[in-house]
Amino acid sequence: MFSTEILFLIGFIVFIAGILILDMLVIDRKAHVVSIKEAGTWTLVWITLALAFSAFLWYYGDLVHGIHSYADLQGVASRYASHLKLNPNDFEASLQSYRHYMTISYLSGYLIEKTLSVDNLFVMMMIFTSFGVKNTEYQHVLNWGILGAIVLRFVFIFAGAAIINRFDWVLIVFGFVLVYSAYKMYRDRNKQESIDVQHHPMVKFLSKYFHVYPRFEGDNFFVRAIKKGNDYELVGKGVKGLLCITPLFVTVLVIEFSDLIFAFDSIPAVFSVSLDPYVVFFSNIFAILGLRAMFFLLAAIADKFRYLKLGVSVLLLFIGVKLLIHKFVEIDAMWSLVIILAVLVISIAASLLIKPVAEPNKQQRDNLQNNA
């Protein structure tokens, strides 16, 4: 017999699957270039949906774990929020306290994932540019990329929760990983990154074990072709040929590979605000669902947020330190949310208000050299 948690999780996944199917097969059935207005509208839609779910947790969060008595509540709290003070003489107040804790943890996790994903979006932009993907196909690739990211998050989060439950010292390891990631992001914040397509690990692997068709064929991931020398030629219907993967499918897999690397930072970061795998999963999924719209919005205004990477490095440092000291100092969930919001707001405000220092042009550089 399924537990309440499993049933709720199945219902949540069915709901998310329904949204994705509607999005992929109806709303974005026709490939087109997404405008800033459209991207902004859908960004607001996804944020509204995420906030609506937080309202559900605020009032009915106990339904996730099927809490019906104080004993149920105590059992759940001992696993996911042992520091929370509960009153055995007032079940309703204790239940409300846990609901509110779930909601704050969910919002903190959502903001962490959303903020950290900005760096991943920059990587996606580089991948599209490096592979020469047409901007009309961005949606198609991102849809499948997001679907793959959801599956990866499901596996990583619940596997991570099981490991943490058995070996709680893993949180210390997560802390060191995040502190190092913070240092690395700060060090490379102004570095111009690029992708070497020919030597990318995923491209080398696919080229070695699969037939890779050298050209894009619309929005097709697979084509039938015959090999002629070092090149491939498409075959008509009814003609047998080699099943080849197209550069568009290679792009999807490279994006999945980059998301896999990104998950090693983002998932430990969200576990810093909640040990409840369901809360972590919900926050991750709602953040990921809005990534595609956020991508098109960010692509148009990416150069405006010069200090966002600095803010992300500060956020990673805070989260890493929080994990390292969690055995000795418990930072309140509300304070964690306030700090996350403060870092995000300050980095965005600084980017918008502080004007960049103009680089000297060639004539000015020549004058400076002559004066020297």
TrEMBL record:
It is found in: Membrane. InterPro entries: Integral_membrane_TerC (IPR005496), Integral_membrane_TerC_rswitch (IPR022369). The chain crosses the membrane at residues 6-27, 39-60, 141-163, 169-186, 242-264, 279-300, 307-329, 335-354. The keyword Repeat does not apply. Keywords: Membrane, Transmembrane, Transmembrane helix. The keyword ATP-binding does not apply. One of its GO terms (cellular component) is membrane. It is a multi-pass membrane protein. PANTHER family: MEMBRANE BOUND PREDICTED REDOX MODULATOR (PTHR30238), THYLAKOID MEMBRANE PROTEIN TERC, CHLOROPLASTIC (PTHR30238:SF0). NCBIfam families: R_switched_Alx (TIGR03718). Belongs to the TerC family. This is Integral membrane protein, TerC family. It comes from Segatella salivae DSM 15606. The lineage of its organism: Bacteria, Pseudomonadati, Bacteroidota, Bacteroidia, Bacteroidales.
